[in-house]
Amino acid sequence: MIAEDSVLLRAGVQRLLADEGIETVAAVEDGDSLLDAIAEHRPDLAVVDVRMPPTFTDEGLRASIEARKRIPNFPVLVLSQYVEERYAVELLAGGASGVGYLLKERVADVAEFVDAVRRVAAGGTSIDHEVISQLMARSRRNPVDALTQREREVLALMAQGMANTAIAKSLVVSDGAVEKHVGNIFAKLGLEPSSSEHRRVRAVLAFLNLG
């Protein structure tokens, strides 16, 4: 489902997703309608604009947080012109599984957006690097101080939902080098293998100083 106050943007995103074989079960324009529609339709994902009526500040983000309280790990992909730090932290602190936060002006192409939609709906993450940078800047303490610059770059790309092969391509290094960096990241963050939690998600939370 889509929550966006602009009629043109709602229609545009709905058409874009339809072209990729993704059905929109509801399209609403405010936070209250978002929560009602989620309860009624139980969609696989909500694509939510941050600023909606009545105040056009953070209604969408607050509604997303409430939706995930009512339905734990309900997949939400937030689209915003800005990083709303307070509620972004609260959204991510609730668990990074099935969470996306993209800045509208930094979505490079349709394929990238659709990939984020599918990834978040499947329980993955897609967090814009600029969002990560701003949240890191506000943190009082940084649990990733032990990481090298390259390991930070790898972890930032992990936070965007990239697999090792895609990270290797982005950084122009071998798959083996990325695997080594990922192993070092897990070791330095003290993330032992777990059957109940995905270490990549836990590493992202640690990177954002939330887990």
What does it look like?
With 211 residues, this protein is an alpha/beta fold. It has two domains: 1-138, Rossmann fold (3-Layer(aba) Sandwich); 140-211, Orthogonal Bundle (Arc Repressor Mutant, subunit A). It has helices at 7-19, 31-41, 59-70, 85-93, 110-121, 129-138, 149-159, 164-171, 175-188, 199-207; strands spanning 2-3, 27-28, 46-49, 76-80, 99-103, 125-127. It has a six-stranded parallel β-sheet, sandwiched between helices. The longest helix has 14 residues, at 175-188. It is globular and about 45 Å long. The mean pLDDT is 85.
Summarize the structure.
The chain has helices at residues 7-19, 31-41, 59-70, 85-93, 110-121, 129-138, 149-159, 164-171, 175-188, 199-207; strands at 2-3, 27-28, 46-49, 76-80, 99-103, 125-127.
